[in-house]
Specification:
By secondary structure, the protein is an alpha+beta fold. It is built from 23 helices and 11 strands. Among the domains are: 1-28 and 129-182 and 231-273, Phosphorylase Kinase, domain 1 (2-Layer Sandwich), CATH 3.30.200; 36-124 and 185-228, no CATH class; 532-581, no CATH class.
Protein backbone atom coordinates (compact mmCIF):
# COMPACT_ATOMS: atom_id res chain seq x y z
CA UNK A 1 0.00 0.00 0.00
CA UNK A 2 1.35 3.35 -0.96
CA UNK A 3 2.46 5.68 1.81
CA UNK A 4 0.93 8.67 0.04
CA UNK A 5 -2.51 8.61 1.73
CA UNK A 6 -3.50 12.17 2.68
CA UNK A 7 -5.71 12.63 5.73
CA UNK A 8 -6.47 8.93 6.28
CA UNK A 9 -5.39 7.56 9.64
CA UNK A 10 -2.82 4.78 9.65
CA UNK A 11 -2.99 4.14 13.39
CA UNK A 12 -5.85 1.65 13.09
CA UNK A 13 -5.58 0.62 9.47
CA UNK A 14 -5.14 -3.06 10.32
CA UNK A 15 -6.24 -4.67 13.57
CA UNK A 16 -6.76 -8.23 14.74
CA UNK A 17 -10.44 -7.87 15.50
CA UNK A 18 -12.44 -6.23 18.25
CA UNK A 19 -11.04 -6.05 21.78
CA UNK A 20 -13.24 -7.02 24.74
CA UNK A 21 -16.21 -4.63 24.95
CA UNK A 22 -15.74 -1.63 27.26
CA UNK A 23 -17.29 -2.10 30.66
CA UNK A 24 -19.96 0.53 30.00
CA UNK A 25 -21.56 -1.36 27.10
CA UNK A 26 -25.16 -2.39 27.41
CA UNK A 27 -25.98 -6.06 27.84
CA UNK A 28 -27.53 -7.95 24.90
CA UNK A 29 -31.20 -7.12 24.59
CA UNK A 30 -34.02 -9.66 24.78
CA UNK A 31 -35.90 -10.55 21.59
CA UNK A 32 -37.99 -7.57 20.51
CA UNK A 33 -41.77 -7.64 20.81
CA UNK A 34 -43.81 -7.64 17.61
CA UNK A 35 -45.72 -4.48 16.66
CA UNK A 36 -49.20 -5.97 16.39
CA UNK A 37 -50.79 -3.17 14.34
CA UNK A 38 -47.96 -3.13 11.77
CA UNK A 39 -47.99 -6.93 11.61
CA UNK A 40 -51.72 -7.01 10.79
CA UNK A 41 -51.34 -4.34 8.09
CA UNK A 42 -48.60 -6.34 6.37
CA UNK A 43 -50.45 -9.64 6.69
CA UNK A 44 -53.54 -8.03 5.12
CA UNK A 45 -51.44 -6.94 2.14
CA UNK A 46 -49.94 -10.41 1.68
CA UNK A 47 -53.41 -11.99 2.09
CA UNK A 48 -54.71 -9.81 -0.73
CA UNK A 49 -51.85 -10.94 -2.96
CA UNK A 50 -52.44 -14.58 -2.08
CA UNK A 51 -56.19 -14.36 -2.75
CA UNK A 52 -55.44 -12.77 -6.11
CA UNK A 53 -53.19 -15.70 -6.97
CA UNK A 54 -55.87 -18.21 -5.92
CA UNK A 55 -58.54 -16.51 -8.02
CA UNK A 56 -56.56 -15.82 -11.20
CA UNK A 57 -53.99 -18.65 -11.28
CA UNK A 58 -55.88 -21.49 -9.59
CA UNK A 59 -59.57 -20.91 -10.32
CA UNK A 60 -60.08 -18.50 -13.23
CA UNK A 61 -57.25 -20.00 -15.29
CA UNK A 62 -58.81 -23.47 -15.10
CA UNK A 63 -62.08 -22.38 -16.62
CA UNK A 64 -61.68 -23.37 -20.32
CA UNK A 65 -62.84 -20.10 -21.89
CA UNK A 66 -61.59 -17.68 -19.23
CA UNK A 67 -58.20 -19.39 -18.81
CA UNK A 68 -56.77 -17.68 -21.88
CA UNK A 69 -57.64 -14.26 -20.48
CA UNK A 70 -55.93 -15.10 -17.17
CA UNK A 71 -52.77 -16.29 -18.92
CA UNK A 72 -52.59 -13.21 -21.17
CA UNK A 73 -52.94 -10.87 -18.21
CA UNK A 74 -50.54 -12.74 -15.90
CA UNK A 75 -47.47 -10.53 -16.40
CA UNK A 76 -49.53 -7.34 -16.06
CA UNK A 77 -51.04 -8.64 -12.81
CA UNK A 78 -47.63 -9.56 -11.37
CA UNK A 79 -46.28 -6.18 -12.38
CA UNK A 80 -49.19 -4.54 -10.56
CA UNK A 81 -48.49 -6.60 -7.43
CA UNK A 82 -44.81 -5.59 -7.56
CA UNK A 83 -45.79 -1.93 -7.94
CA UNK A 84 -48.15 -2.07 -4.94
CA UNK A 85 -45.48 -3.79 -2.84
CA UNK A 86 -42.95 -1.14 -3.83
CA UNK A 87 -45.36 1.58 -2.71
CA UNK A 88 -45.93 -0.26 0.60
CA UNK A 89 -42.18 -0.63 1.16
CA UNK A 90 -41.53 3.07 0.54
CA UNK A 91 -44.33 4.00 2.95
CA UNK A 92 -43.40 1.65 5.81
CA UNK A 93 -39.66 1.15 5.30
CA UNK A 94 -38.03 -1.37 7.61
CA UNK A 95 -37.36 -4.83 6.25
CA UNK A 96 -39.82 -4.35 3.37
CA UNK A 97 -37.22 -2.41 1.37
CA UNK A 98 -34.70 -5.18 2.03
CA UNK A 99 -37.28 -7.76 0.93
CA UNK A 100 -37.93 -5.87 -2.30
CA UNK A 101 -34.21 -5.71 -3.04
CA UNK A 102 -33.87 -9.40 -2.14
CA UNK A 103 -36.73 -10.41 -4.46
CA UNK A 104 -35.34 -8.22 -7.25
CA UNK A 105 -32.40 -10.62 -7.58
CA UNK A 106 -34.58 -13.77 -7.64
CA UNK A 107 -34.45 -14.00 -11.42
CA UNK A 108 -34.78 -17.77 -11.02
CA UNK A 109 -38.26 -17.37 -9.46
CA UNK A 110 -39.88 -14.16 -10.69
CA UNK A 111 -40.51 -12.78 -14.18
CA UNK A 112 -38.43 -9.78 -15.38
CA UNK A 113 -41.48 -7.50 -15.10
CA UNK A 114 -41.43 -8.04 -11.32
CA UNK A 115 -37.67 -7.96 -10.71
CA UNK A 116 -37.24 -4.78 -12.78
CA UNK A 117 -40.04 -3.05 -10.86
CA UNK A 118 -38.48 -3.99 -7.51
CA UNK A 119 -34.89 -3.25 -8.54
CA UNK A 120 -35.57 0.49 -8.31
CA UNK A 121 -36.22 0.36 -4.55
CA UNK A 122 -33.70 2.63 -2.84
CA UNK A 123 -32.75 2.00 0.78
CA UNK A 124 -33.33 5.63 1.75
CA UNK A 125 -35.98 6.70 4.27
CA UNK A 126 -36.58 9.82 6.40
CA UNK A 127 -33.94 10.33 9.08
CA UNK A 128 -34.41 9.93 12.83
CA UNK A 129 -33.98 13.01 15.02
CA UNK A 130 -30.60 13.80 16.56
CA UNK A 131 -32.08 13.25 20.03
CA UNK A 132 -33.11 9.70 19.13
CA UNK A 133 -29.66 8.97 17.69
CA UNK A 134 -27.99 10.31 20.83
CA UNK A 135 -30.30 8.15 22.98
CA UNK A 136 -29.14 5.01 21.15
CA UNK A 137 -25.48 5.97 21.63
CA UNK A 138 -26.05 6.70 25.33
CA UNK A 139 -27.82 3.35 25.85
CA UNK A 140 -24.98 1.47 24.15
CA UNK A 141 -22.10 3.13 26.01
CA UNK A 142 -23.78 3.78 29.34
CA UNK A 143 -23.01 7.50 29.32
CA UNK A 144 -24.28 10.58 27.42
CA UNK A 145 -23.43 10.77 23.73
CA UNK A 146 -21.53 14.04 24.33
CA UNK A 147 -19.11 12.15 26.55
CA UNK A 148 -18.53 9.55 23.83
CA UNK A 149 -18.13 11.95 20.89
CA UNK A 150 -16.93 15.54 21.16
CA UNK A 151 -19.17 16.47 18.23
CA UNK A 152 -21.95 14.72 16.30
CA UNK A 153 -23.34 16.21 13.12
CA UNK A 154 -27.06 17.03 13.54
CA UNK A 155 -27.68 16.11 9.89
CA UNK A 156 -27.03 12.52 8.77
CA UNK A 157 -24.79 11.89 5.78
CA UNK A 158 -27.06 8.98 4.83
CA UNK A 159 -30.27 7.47 6.21
CA UNK A 160 -31.18 3.86 5.34
CA UNK A 161 -33.95 1.56 6.54
CA UNK A 162 -31.97 0.02 9.42
CA UNK A 163 -29.44 2.72 10.37
CA UNK A 164 -28.11 6.16 9.55
CA UNK A 165 -24.63 7.67 9.32
CA UNK A 166 -23.36 10.88 10.97
CA UNK A 167 -20.05 12.63 10.77
CA UNK A 168 -18.47 12.92 14.23
CA UNK A 169 -15.33 13.88 16.12
CA UNK A 170 -13.66 11.92 18.90
CA UNK A 171 -12.56 13.52 22.15
CA UNK A 172 -8.96 13.55 20.83
CA UNK A 173 -10.03 15.51 17.73
CA UNK A 174 -9.99 12.68 15.16
CA UNK A 175 -12.63 12.93 12.43
CA UNK A 176 -14.79 9.79 12.14
CA UNK A 177 -18.15 8.63 10.86
CA UNK A 178 -20.66 6.90 13.12
CA UNK A 179 -23.27 4.43 11.93
CA UNK A 180 -26.16 4.21 14.42
CA UNK A 181 -29.13 1.85 14.30
CA UNK A 182 -32.59 3.35 14.34
CA UNK A 183 -34.44 3.29 17.65
CA UNK A 184 -36.74 0.27 18.07
CA UNK A 185 -35.39 -1.24 14.85
CA UNK A 186 -35.28 -4.74 16.38
CA UNK A 187 -39.06 -4.67 16.94
CA UNK A 188 -39.58 -3.42 13.38
CA UNK A 189 -37.39 -6.17 11.93
CA UNK A 190 -39.03 -8.96 13.93
CA UNK A 191 -42.51 -7.68 13.05
CA UNK A 192 -41.76 -7.60 9.35
CA UNK A 193 -40.06 -11.01 9.40
CA UNK A 194 -43.05 -12.53 11.19
CA UNK A 195 -45.42 -11.19 8.50
CA UNK A 196 -43.09 -12.36 5.72
CA UNK A 197 -42.96 -15.85 7.24
CA UNK A 198 -46.76 -16.02 7.14
CA UNK A 199 -46.67 -15.06 3.45
CA UNK A 200 -44.01 -17.73 2.76
CA UNK A 201 -46.15 -20.38 4.47
CA UNK A 202 -49.10 -19.41 2.29
CA UNK A 203 -46.99 -19.53 -0.88
CA UNK A 204 -45.93 -23.09 -0.04
CA UNK A 205 -49.51 -24.09 -0.90
CA UNK A 206 -48.97 -22.80 -4.46
CA UNK A 207 -47.24 -25.71 -6.14
CA UNK A 208 -46.07 -23.69 -9.16
CA UNK A 209 -43.67 -21.92 -6.78
CA UNK A 210 -43.10 -24.52 -4.06
CA UNK A 211 -41.97 -27.19 -6.51
CA UNK A 212 -39.25 -24.85 -7.83
CA UNK A 213 -37.81 -23.56 -4.57
CA UNK A 214 -37.54 -24.44 -0.91
CA UNK A 215 -39.47 -21.51 0.58
CA UNK A 216 -38.51 -22.41 4.14
CA UNK A 217 -34.83 -22.21 3.24
CA UNK A 218 -35.41 -19.01 1.27
CA UNK A 219 -37.05 -17.38 4.30
CA UNK A 220 -34.28 -18.57 6.64
CA UNK A 221 -31.63 -17.12 4.32
CA UNK A 222 -33.41 -13.78 4.09
CA UNK A 223 -34.06 -13.60 7.85
CA UNK A 224 -30.44 -14.52 8.63
CA UNK A 225 -29.10 -11.91 6.19
CA UNK A 226 -31.38 -9.21 7.60
CA UNK A 227 -30.59 -9.95 11.25
CA UNK A 228 -26.88 -10.05 10.42
CA UNK A 229 -27.09 -6.43 9.25
CA UNK A 230 -28.12 -5.49 12.80
CA UNK A 231 -24.81 -6.75 14.21
CA UNK A 232 -22.24 -4.00 13.72
CA UNK A 233 -19.53 -6.07 15.42
CA UNK A 234 -19.91 -8.57 12.58
CA UNK A 235 -19.86 -5.74 10.04
CA UNK A 236 -16.58 -4.47 11.48
CA UNK A 237 -15.08 -7.95 11.20
CA UNK A 238 -16.29 -8.16 7.58
CA UNK A 239 -14.48 -4.90 6.82
CA UNK A 240 -11.26 -6.20 8.33
CA UNK A 241 -11.48 -9.50 6.46
CA UNK A 242 -11.93 -7.58 3.21
CA UNK A 243 -8.97 -5.36 4.09
CA UNK A 244 -6.84 -8.46 4.72
CA UNK A 245 -7.86 -9.95 1.35
CA UNK A 246 -6.64 -6.83 -0.47
CA UNK A 247 -3.80 -5.79 1.83
CA UNK A 248 -1.27 -6.17 -1.00
CA UNK A 249 -3.32 -4.26 -3.59
CA UNK A 250 -2.03 -0.66 -3.92
CA UNK A 251 -5.37 0.53 -5.37
CA UNK A 252 -7.72 -0.66 -2.58
CA UNK A 253 -8.35 1.09 0.74
CA UNK A 254 -10.72 0.09 3.56
CA UNK A 255 -11.75 2.39 6.42
CA UNK A 256 -10.29 1.47 9.81
CA UNK A 257 -12.68 0.34 12.55
CA UNK A 258 -12.47 2.17 15.89
CA UNK A 259 -13.28 -0.77 18.14
CA UNK A 260 -13.25 1.29 21.36
CA UNK A 261 -16.20 3.23 19.93
CA UNK A 262 -18.06 0.29 18.38
CA UNK A 263 -20.86 -1.87 19.77
CA UNK A 264 -23.50 -4.09 18.29
CA UNK A 265 -25.65 -1.02 17.47
CA UNK A 266 -23.00 1.68 16.93
CA UNK A 267 -20.14 1.40 14.42
CA UNK A 268 -17.38 4.01 14.32
CA UNK A 269 -15.13 4.18 11.27
CA UNK A 270 -12.32 6.26 9.86
CA UNK A 271 -13.72 9.09 7.74
CA UNK A 272 -12.70 8.16 4.22
CA UNK A 273 -15.31 10.13 2.27
CA UNK A 274 -13.91 11.33 -1.03
CA UNK A 275 -15.10 11.52 -4.65
CA UNK A 276 -18.20 9.43 -5.34
CA UNK A 277 -17.46 6.82 -7.95
CA UNK A 278 -20.32 8.14 -10.12
CA UNK A 279 -19.13 11.76 -9.97
CA UNK A 280 -17.55 11.65 -13.42
CA UNK A 281 -16.92 15.41 -13.59
CA UNK A 282 -14.99 15.44 -10.29
CA UNK A 283 -12.96 12.38 -11.30
CA UNK A 284 -12.03 14.03 -14.60
CA UNK A 285 -11.15 17.28 -12.82
CA UNK A 286 -8.80 15.35 -10.53
CA UNK A 287 -6.96 14.01 -13.60
CA UNK A 288 -7.88 10.37 -12.90
CA UNK A 289 -8.15 7.94 -15.81
CA UNK A 290 -11.75 6.67 -15.66
CA UNK A 291 -10.94 3.66 -17.84
CA UNK A 292 -8.36 2.61 -15.26
CA UNK A 293 -10.92 3.02 -12.47
CA UNK A 294 -13.39 0.79 -14.36
CA UNK A 295 -10.69 -1.84 -14.89
CA UNK A 296 -9.60 -1.83 -11.23
CA UNK A 297 -13.21 -2.07 -10.06
CA UNK A 298 -13.96 -4.97 -12.43
CA UNK A 299 -10.75 -6.83 -11.50
CA UNK A 300 -11.48 -6.32 -7.80
CA UNK A 301 -14.87 -8.00 -8.11
CA UNK A 302 -13.43 -10.87 -10.12
CA UNK A 303 -10.98 -11.46 -7.28
CA UNK A 304 -13.69 -11.16 -4.62
CA UNK A 305 -15.91 -13.76 -6.28
CA UNK A 306 -13.43 -16.23 -7.75
CA UNK A 307 -10.33 -15.93 -5.53
CA UNK A 308 -11.35 -14.80 -2.04
CA UNK A 309 -15.00 -16.03 -2.26
CA UNK A 310 -15.98 -13.07 -0.05
CA UNK A 311 -17.95 -10.36 -1.82
CA UNK A 312 -18.92 -6.79 -0.94
CA UNK A 313 -22.54 -7.29 -2.00
CA UNK A 314 -23.85 -3.71 -1.93
CA UNK A 315 -21.61 -1.65 -4.26
CA UNK A 316 -24.02 1.23 -4.84
CA UNK A 317 -22.47 4.68 -5.48
CA UNK A 318 -22.75 5.72 -1.83
CA UNK A 319 -20.48 2.86 -0.79
CA UNK A 320 -17.64 3.41 -3.29
CA UNK A 321 -15.26 6.38 -3.37
CA UNK A 322 -12.28 7.41 -5.48
CA UNK A 323 -9.50 9.22 -3.62
CA UNK A 324 -6.87 11.03 -5.75
CA UNK A 325 -3.26 10.82 -4.61
CA UNK A 326 -0.44 13.24 -5.39
CA UNK A 327 0.28 13.12 -9.10
CA UNK A 328 3.67 11.80 -10.17
CA UNK A 329 5.30 14.57 -12.29
CA UNK A 330 6.41 11.91 -14.76
CA UNK A 331 3.02 10.24 -14.84
CA UNK A 332 0.23 10.95 -17.32
CA UNK A 333 -2.66 10.43 -14.90
CA UNK A 334 -3.34 10.96 -11.21
CA UNK A 335 -2.95 7.78 -9.11
CA UNK A 336 -5.96 6.92 -6.98
CA UNK A 337 -7.39 4.69 -4.27
CA UNK A 338 -10.65 2.75 -4.67
CA UNK A 339 -12.38 2.91 -1.26
CA UNK A 340 -15.07 0.47 -0.09
CA UNK A 341 -17.39 1.21 2.83
CA UNK A 342 -20.45 -0.53 4.37
CA UNK A 343 -19.87 -4.26 4.82
CA UNK A 344 -23.24 -5.03 6.36
CA UNK A 345 -24.24 -7.00 3.26
CA UNK A 346 -21.62 -9.50 2.16
CA UNK A 347 -21.83 -12.76 0.23
CA UNK A 348 -19.72 -15.79 1.09
CA UNK A 349 -19.46 -18.19 -1.85
CA UNK A 350 -20.12 -21.72 -0.51
CA UNK A 351 -17.27 -24.24 -0.72
CA UNK A 352 -19.25 -26.54 -3.01
CA UNK A 353 -19.63 -23.76 -5.61
CA UNK A 354 -16.08 -22.50 -5.77
CA UNK A 355 -14.56 -25.00 -8.22
CA UNK A 356 -17.62 -24.71 -10.46
CA UNK A 357 -17.41 -20.91 -10.41
CA UNK A 358 -13.80 -21.09 -11.52
CA UNK A 359 -14.81 -23.41 -14.37
CA UNK A 360 -17.58 -20.96 -15.25
CA UNK A 361 -15.29 -17.93 -15.54
CA UNK A 362 -12.76 -19.99 -17.55
CA UNK A 363 -15.59 -20.98 -19.88
CA UNK A 364 -16.73 -17.36 -20.05
CA UNK A 365 -13.26 -16.07 -20.85
CA UNK A 366 -12.68 -18.74 -23.52
CA UNK A 367 -16.32 -18.65 -24.74
CA UNK A 368 -16.74 -22.36 -24.13
CA UNK A 369 -20.51 -22.94 -23.84
CA UNK A 370 -20.15 -26.61 -22.95
CA UNK A 371 -17.81 -25.84 -20.05
CA UNK A 372 -20.20 -23.19 -18.72
CA UNK A 373 -23.20 -25.55 -18.76
CA UNK A 374 -21.09 -28.28 -17.14
CA UNK A 375 -20.19 -25.78 -14.40
CA UNK A 376 -23.91 -25.18 -13.85
CA UNK A 377 -24.48 -28.92 -13.54
CA UNK A 378 -21.51 -29.55 -11.23
CA UNK A 379 -22.62 -26.78 -8.87
CA UNK A 380 -26.17 -28.11 -8.60
CA UNK A 381 -27.72 -24.96 -10.07
CA UNK A 382 -29.64 -26.87 -12.75
CA UNK A 383 -33.05 -28.21 -11.90
CA UNK A 384 -33.73 -31.91 -12.68
CA UNK A 385 -34.63 -32.46 -16.33
CA UNK A 386 -32.89 -29.31 -17.62
CA UNK A 387 -32.13 -29.51 -21.34
CA UNK A 388 -28.36 -29.08 -21.36
CA UNK A 389 -28.14 -29.16 -25.15
CA UNK A 390 -30.48 -26.18 -25.44
CA UNK A 391 -28.56 -24.33 -22.74
CA UNK A 392 -25.31 -24.83 -24.63
CA UNK A 393 -26.98 -23.61 -27.79
CA UNK A 394 -28.28 -20.40 -26.23
CA UNK A 395 -24.87 -19.65 -24.68
CA UNK A 396 -23.19 -20.12 -28.07
CA UNK A 397 -25.69 -17.72 -29.64
CA UNK A 398 -25.05 -15.13 -26.91
CA UNK A 399 -21.28 -15.41 -27.38
CA UNK A 400 -21.71 -14.80 -31.12
CA UNK A 401 -24.01 -11.82 -30.67
CA UNK A 402 -22.57 -10.18 -27.54
CA UNK A 403 -18.87 -10.90 -27.99
CA UNK A 404 -16.82 -7.70 -28.18
CA UNK A 405 -19.76 -5.47 -27.19
CA UNK A 406 -18.62 -2.46 -25.16
CA UNK A 407 -20.22 -1.68 -21.80
CA UNK A 408 -21.86 1.48 -23.16
CA UNK A 409 -23.65 -0.52 -25.87
CA UNK A 410 -24.49 -3.51 -23.67
CA UNK A 411 -27.84 -2.33 -22.26
CA UNK A 412 -29.38 -1.60 -25.67
CA UNK A 413 -27.97 -4.75 -27.25
CA UNK A 414 -29.03 -6.83 -24.22
CA UNK A 415 -32.66 -5.66 -24.56
CA UNK A 416 -32.65 -6.54 -28.25
CA UNK A 417 -31.15 -9.95 -27.55
CA UNK A 418 -33.62 -10.53 -24.71
CA UNK A 419 -36.48 -10.13 -27.20
CA UNK A 420 -34.71 -12.54 -29.54
CA UNK A 421 -34.30 -15.10 -26.78
CA UNK A 422 -37.97 -14.84 -25.81
CA UNK A 423 -38.97 -15.59 -29.41
CA UNK A 424 -36.36 -18.20 -30.28
CA UNK A 425 -35.95 -19.97 -26.93
CA UNK A 426 -39.41 -19.52 -25.44
CA UNK A 427 -39.39 -23.08 -24.06
CA UNK A 428 -36.14 -22.50 -22.18
CA UNK A 429 -37.20 -19.09 -20.84
CA UNK A 430 -40.55 -20.54 -19.76
CA UNK A 431 -38.95 -23.43 -17.87
CA UNK A 432 -36.08 -21.32 -16.38
CA UNK A 433 -34.17 -24.44 -15.27
CA UNK A 434 -32.10 -22.77 -12.51
CA UNK A 435 -32.26 -22.43 -8.76
CA UNK A 436 -29.61 -20.19 -7.22
CA UNK A 437 -28.41 -20.05 -3.60
CA UNK A 438 -28.87 -16.64 -2.02
CA UNK A 439 -25.15 -15.89 -1.56
CA UNK A 440 -24.56 -16.39 -5.28
CA UNK A 441 -27.54 -14.19 -6.12
CA UNK A 442 -26.17 -11.41 -3.92
CA UNK A 443 -22.90 -11.69 -5.82
CA UNK A 444 -24.82 -11.52 -9.12
CA UNK A 445 -26.70 -8.45 -7.86
CA UNK A 446 -23.38 -6.82 -7.02
CA UNK A 447 -22.09 -7.51 -10.53
CA UNK A 448 -25.29 -6.05 -12.02
CA UNK A 449 -24.83 -2.82 -10.03
CA UNK A 450 -21.15 -2.84 -10.93
CA UNK A 451 -22.01 -3.03 -14.65
CA UNK A 452 -23.96 0.22 -14.44
CA UNK A 453 -21.12 1.96 -12.59
CA UNK A 454 -18.52 0.71 -15.07
CA UNK A 455 -20.65 1.92 -17.98
CA UNK A 456 -20.81 5.43 -16.49
CA UNK A 457 -17.04 5.44 -15.94
CA UNK A 458 -16.07 4.10 -19.35
CA UNK A 459 -18.65 3.24 -22.03
CA UNK A 460 -15.83 1.68 -24.09
CA UNK A 461 -14.83 -0.78 -21.36
CA UNK A 462 -14.73 -4.30 -22.82
CA UNK A 463 -15.57 -6.95 -20.19
CA UNK A 464 -14.57 -9.80 -22.51
CA UNK A 465 -11.02 -8.48 -22.91
CA UNK A 466 -10.79 -7.87 -19.14
CA UNK A 467 -12.04 -11.37 -18.29
CA UNK A 468 -9.74 -13.36 -20.59
CA UNK A 469 -6.44 -12.75 -18.67
CA UNK A 470 -8.21 -13.59 -15.42
CA UNK A 471 -9.63 -16.78 -16.96
CA UNK A 472 -6.18 -17.76 -18.24
CA UNK A 473 -4.72 -17.16 -14.77
CA UNK A 474 -7.39 -19.36 -13.18
CA UNK A 475 -6.87 -22.06 -15.80
CA UNK A 476 -3.11 -22.08 -15.19
CA UNK A 477 -3.65 -22.22 -11.44
CA UNK A 478 -6.16 -25.02 -11.85
CA UNK A 479 -3.69 -26.95 -14.01
CA UNK A 480 -0.84 -26.44 -11.53
CA UNK A 481 -2.88 -27.63 -8.59
CA UNK A 482 -4.70 -30.32 -10.52
CA UNK A 483 -1.88 -32.76 -11.21
CA UNK A 484 -3.23 -35.20 -8.62
CA UNK A 485 -6.65 -34.94 -10.25
CA UNK A 486 -5.17 -35.77 -13.64
CA UNK A 487 -3.39 -38.78 -12.17
CA UNK A 488 -6.66 -39.95 -10.64
CA UNK A 489 -8.38 -39.57 -14.02
CA UNK A 490 -5.62 -41.56 -15.73
CA UNK A 491 -5.93 -44.27 -13.09
CA UNK A 492 -9.68 -44.44 -13.61
CA UNK A 493 -9.19 -44.67 -17.38
CA UNK A 494 -6.69 -47.52 -17.02
CA UNK A 495 -9.15 -49.34 -14.77
CA UNK A 496 -11.88 -48.90 -17.36
CA UNK A 497 -9.65 -50.34 -20.12
CA UNK A 498 -8.78 -53.33 -17.94
CA UNK A 499 -12.47 -54.02 -17.26
CA UNK A 500 -13.50 -53.64 -20.89
CA UNK A 501 -12.78 -57.28 -22.07
CA UNK A 502 -14.95 -58.82 -19.34
CA UNK A 503 -17.77 -56.34 -20.07
CA UNK A 504 -17.62 -57.14 -23.80
CA UNK A 505 -17.73 -60.87 -23.02
CA UNK A 506 -20.82 -60.35 -20.84
CA UNK A 507 -22.50 -58.33 -23.63
CA UNK A 508 -21.87 -61.03 -26.24
CA UNK A 509 -23.19 -63.76 -23.90
CA UNK A 510 -26.41 -61.79 -23.26
CA UNK A 511 -26.89 -61.28 -27.00
CA UNK A 512 -26.48 -65.00 -27.73
CA UNK A 513 -29.00 -65.93 -25.03
CA UNK A 514 -31.52 -63.34 -26.23
CA UNK A 515 -31.40 -61.55 -22.87
CA UNK A 516 -30.21 -58.20 -24.23
CA UNK A 517 -32.66 -55.38 -23.56
CA UNK A 518 -32.63 -51.68 -24.39
CA UNK A 519 -34.15 -48.74 -22.58
CA UNK A 520 -35.48 -45.80 -24.53
CA UNK A 521 -36.38 -42.42 -23.03
CA UNK A 522 -37.96 -39.39 -24.56
CA UNK A 523 -35.88 -36.34 -25.37
CA UNK A 524 -36.39 -33.52 -22.85
CA UNK A 525 -38.44 -31.39 -25.27
CA UNK A 526 -40.71 -34.29 -26.19
CA UNK A 527 -41.17 -35.28 -22.55
CA UNK A 528 -42.15 -31.73 -21.63
CA UNK A 529 -44.60 -31.53 -24.53
CA UNK A 530 -46.16 -34.87 -23.57
CA UNK A 531 -46.47 -33.70 -19.96
CA UNK A 532 -48.30 -30.55 -21.09
CA UNK A 533 -50.65 -32.59 -23.29
CA UNK A 534 -51.42 -34.84 -20.31
CA UNK A 535 -52.14 -31.75 -18.18
CA UNK A 536 -54.47 -30.38 -20.85
CA UNK A 537 -56.36 -33.68 -21.05
CA UNK A 538 -56.67 -33.77 -17.26
CA UNK A 539 -58.06 -30.24 -17.21
CA UNK A 540 -60.50 -30.98 -20.04
CA UNK A 541 -61.70 -34.11 -18.24
CA UNK A 542 -62.16 -32.13 -15.02
CA UNK A 543 -64.07 -29.36 -16.82
CA UNK A 544 -66.39 -31.80 -18.65
CA UNK A 545 -67.06 -33.78 -15.47
CA UNK A 546 -67.75 -30.68 -13.36
CA UNK A 547 -69.95 -28.97 -15.94
CA UNK A 548 -71.83 -32.21 -16.71
CA UNK A 549 -72.67 -32.86 -13.07
CA UNK A 550 -73.61 -29.20 -12.56
CA UNK A 551 -75.97 -29.11 -15.57
CA UNK A 552 -77.57 -32.44 -14.61
CA UNK A 553 -78.12 -31.26 -11.03
CA UNK A 554 -79.58 -27.88 -12.09
CA UNK A 555 -81.86 -29.56 -14.69
CA UNK A 556 -83.22 -32.10 -12.19
CA UNK A 557 -83.78 -29.39 -9.57
CA UNK A 558 -85.70 -27.32 -12.12
CA UNK A 559 -87.94 -30.28 -13.00
CA UNK A 560 -88.30 -32.07 -9.63
CA UNK A 561 -87.58 -29.23 -7.19
CA UNK A 562 -85.25 -29.51 -4.17
CA UNK A 563 -84.39 -32.98 -2.96
CA UNK A 564 -84.14 -36.20 -4.90
CA UNK A 565 -81.12 -36.81 -7.07
CA UNK A 566 -80.41 -33.12 -7.81
CA UNK A 567 -78.75 -32.42 -4.45
CA UNK A 568 -76.19 -35.30 -4.67
CA UNK A 569 -75.37 -34.24 -8.24
CA UNK A 570 -74.74 -30.62 -7.20
CA UNK A 571 -72.61 -31.78 -4.27
CA UNK A 572 -70.68 -34.07 -6.63
CA UNK A 573 -70.14 -31.11 -9.00
CA UNK A 574 -68.74 -29.07 -6.13
CA UNK A 575 -66.44 -31.89 -5.04
CA UNK A 576 -65.28 -32.41 -8.63
CA UNK A 577 -64.50 -28.69 -8.87
CA UNK A 578 -62.43 -28.75 -5.66
CA UNK A 579 -60.68 -31.95 -6.77
CA UNK A 580 -59.64 -30.26 -10.01
CA UNK A 581 -58.17 -27.30 -8.14
CA UNK A 582 -55.82 -29.57 -6.22
CA UNK A 583 -54.44 -31.25 -9.35
CA UNK A 584 -51.63 -29.72 -11.39
Amino acid sequence: MTDNIPRFSRRQRRTNGPPPPPSGLAAPTAPAAVDRARYLRLVRFFAGVFLSIIWWDLIFQRIPIAGGVARRNRLARWRGIARRFRSLAVRYGGVLIKLGQFLSIRVDLLPPEVTIELAGLQDEVPAETLADVQAVIAAEFGRPAKQVFAWLSPQPAAAASLAQVHAARLQNGEEVVVKVQRPRIEALVETDLAAIQVAANWLKLYRTISRRVDLDRLYREFAMTTRAELDFIAEGRNAERFAADFAADPHIYIAAVYWDYTTRRVLTLENVASLKITDVAAIDAAGINRSEVARVLYDTYLEQIFIHNFVHADPHPGNLFIHPLDRDPAGAATPFLLIFVDFGMVAVIPERLRASLRDYVIGLGTRDARRIVQAYADSGLLLPGADRRRLEEVHEVLFQRLGGIKMGQLSDVAMEQARMLMAEYRDLVYELPFQFPTDLLFAMRAVAILSGIATALDPEFDPWTATLPFAERLAADQLTHGVRGWLDEIGALVGLVLRLPSQLDRLITQTQRGDLTTQVSLAPDAAKMLHRVEQSIDRLTWAVLTVGLLIAGVALRAVEGPGGLSTPLLVAAGLAFLWGLTRR
